[in-house]
């Protein structure tokens, strides 16, 4: 039985500890009741850019491979088979071949075959007649020339050039295999998978219900009879529901540090952990339209930030300051501290930074008598709204007056993807702690999830250089240099990297909360209830 990997909230540590209380013989049955923070735009993971979709719908699916879910820190060393039984690289590193499981069935009874693998990735690469309405991770597969099959139980990815990180991308919770015979439109409302739980219903703004898959190919799993997610957008109301016993578990990694104290005071037996979640709070600017097409104004924005104030107010000190990549020790690719602090805006003298920012604003034509009025767009949930309010307050010191513009989840990602905003407060969840995922998805020219229109072809060449590098030490140095350049270019100013809490009732066993837990494909298949 899996142990709980946890960061004890009181200890304020970054490395997980074990909770042996989850040991024991799993019991069968029961419905796991979880509150959901908001209503997802659809049920299609491949068309989403938020773990509001992953959390309720990943239990419906399987990947080819998956990060081992009882290892606290995702890495290439913790990847295990899922729909694939095994995999092998060619000698030149340009072909990755998977041997697939036999006898696996989709929830509608049809057999899973290699054709489903090809269909899924052809759609992701934009090569099939059927199209995704949104395809935020298309850039992940830019180096994949073709996906081919050899019989029903072998699929190969042929690459244009070596890309060792491809396997990690395939292990992400954003990479489920879809059925060939179900249309993308149906997958948005009635998803069909091979996973431990089958879809029952999705009532927008109300609930999402899943039931046990009795034909799951992993024998003896899942232990639960089903999972029910109740959508409650008010965080305080949701927490009250948990402490009163209405819910067995909070929405994963959504309990703020102040609310965590409230939970522990009202429900002292609850199990609560805090983890780095590989989610950065950041500023997005539409650099292709005035006024933020002016690099001086963008640089002033980066200089105005008092990051420690955000960390103190929002997280009571339990968050991390860094660049694009997840800070250490949770992250494996973080810039050294001295390099980070050499970047404009990251130095400790906030007053000096802001004085420099005011000079840049004055150069752009603004000042005490001519202030810049902007709308600050953000998603209408607390973890977006709260930092947006702080940002608006801090910008006042450099002659920028912000007006909060809140947007519902269903509209938020389409809105920013089509660049229908000027300035935004955003959270960027990275699906894998790997530079290939973060750099190509968020910063490559033309990527759907490059919300700021940032485009630097010279840096893109470095993206490719680090991607092909097999020597980890050499690759890290390239990654640090790229990260530094992204911050200096004000591509997407990073405010902080969050640590968030998750809580569950003491009778819930087998929960694993990991670094990057929101995106690693967690499916609740080992969870059981001792009551």
Strand % is: 15-25%
Q: Tell me which CATH architecture of the domain at 276-499 applies here.
A: Roll
C-alpha termini separation? 17 Å
Broad shape: globular
Unreliable runs: 1-22
Helix content: 25-40%
**Total strand count, please?**
20
Write up this protein:
The longest helix is centred in the last third of the chain and has 17 residues, at 472-488. The protein has 15 helices and 20 strands. Helices cover 28% and strands 22% of the residues. The model is unreliable at 1-22 (pLDDT under 50). It is globular and about 70 Å long. It has a 6-stranded mixed beta sheet. Helix 7 (295-304) runs antiparallel to helix 10 (350-363). It has a domain at 276-499: Dipeptide-binding Protein, Domain 3 (Dipeptide-binding Protein, domain 3), CATH 3.10.105.10. By secondary structure, it is α+β, with helices and mostly antiparallel strands. A hairpin with a 4-residue loop joins strand 8 (144-149) and strand 9 (154-159). Keywords: Signal. This is Peptide ABC transporter substrate-binding protein. InterPro entries: Peptide/Ni-bd (IPR030678), SBP_5 (IPR039424), SBP_5_dom (IPR000914). It is found in: Periplasm. It holds the Pfam family SBP_bac_5.
